[in-house]
């Protein structure tokens, strides 16, 4: 690691210290930024920096893109089986280094170790899945209306892709995007979030070890200030043909605008404001277990988390009582502590936003049943598990992504009323419903406006299921059969006129 040993004390020890890199990775080399500037990587559980990474800016983009493009020219011709084998090798190496990768993840995101393991298991689902997908990319052949013609389609990789990824699930987001791109025959440049570059660099190191050629997966790190400049340079570079972004709707619109100038293909996984509908006839144990895990996953910092929990009046009091009792049991602490069941939020901005949302709700008449405050503990960014009732549509907390361990409850009477309320948002990422009435469930599946519907199910993200939203939650699909790899392919149509076939 560059100069960090003297400047910072590493707060953990790895079994395989080779995994730890804090320079950008371009064309198989560990490189500094042209400016030589760096930014600090902070442990959210203590607020202390523990390493630094290059602050790349627009001046660093061309070399990285040219490397990716040079690699693309040969990588596109590698057989799908060879691409699958590299993805499988990458998958095995990540699994072999699971303990260490989890440690880095804990010290970058703050999530508890058990959740870090969970993220790695979830994420290697993508490498495994896309290894399989690589060999199943196929075109078609058919006879059109004109009988002397034959039409065929082939699928070809788009070219260099750029991935702009968030900090909440840095392993899952990289493997979901890079898995699809590399399976398709594209190369990729990743711009990790400033909070989680080291996790991403460890994955790049393992991709290199897995045999991917130089330039197949480049990583350019940068800080918060230079993120817009670096991202814009990537979106505008003529050799970048595709951009995949996961993050806020506000930034997603900027990315779409930048890419629209050159009609680049874009996948946008944007904000969520996901409703949960729990009906009187639901299995309360099932709903509790599923939604509790969903809500408190990574201290509420998931785009598909439960943002608004609607409970029907017949079970409302009982459900709330159980929710409060379970929430009281949460042990908030550093992700590396064995007793911890919920870590800090990842950034101080997360604390500020949660406080502002709670304050706004309170000022508009909501009741705070528990929590509502930051926890001052060891310098970390901790927030109390918080339960709020009496939430109304005019409150910011019911309009915005909370991204903190704050649960909001709303009582409802009828299916019609709750569907209207659930859909009353510009977002459409995921919705969840709990009922044992099959007809109602089917209606909810059809009537809820979201890209993913959990039916008696909380978190349903999986490599084999298409992931993606509608409305202002974005467009395009990641993961799932055919659709995710298709985001990185073009379809070329050939038409052939056949003579002598009477
Ligand atoms: O936060 C967004 C991604 C969460 C997931 O993949 O389940």
Automatic annotation (TrEMBL):
UniProt keyword Oxidoreductase, yes or no: yes
InterPro entries assigned: Ald_DH/histidinol_DH, Ald_DH_C, Ald_DH_N, Aldehyde_DH_dom, Aldehyde_DH_Superfamily
Similarity field: Belongs to the aldehyde dehydrogenase family.
GO cellular component: cytoplasm
SUPFAM superfamilies to which the protein is assigned, alphabetical: ALDH-like
Lineage: Eukaryota, Fungi, Dikarya, Ascomycota, Pezizomycotina
Annotated organism of origin: Trematosphaeria pertusa
Single GO biological process annotation from the record: gamma-aminobutyric acid catabolic process
One GO MF term: succinate-semialdehyde dehydrogenase (NAD+) activity
UniProt keyword terms in alphabetical order: Oxidoreductase
Domain Aldehyde dehydrogenase span(s) in chain numbering: 30-493
Protein name per UniProt: Aldehyde dehydrogenase
Pathway annotation from the record: Amino-acid degradation; 4-aminobutanoate degradation
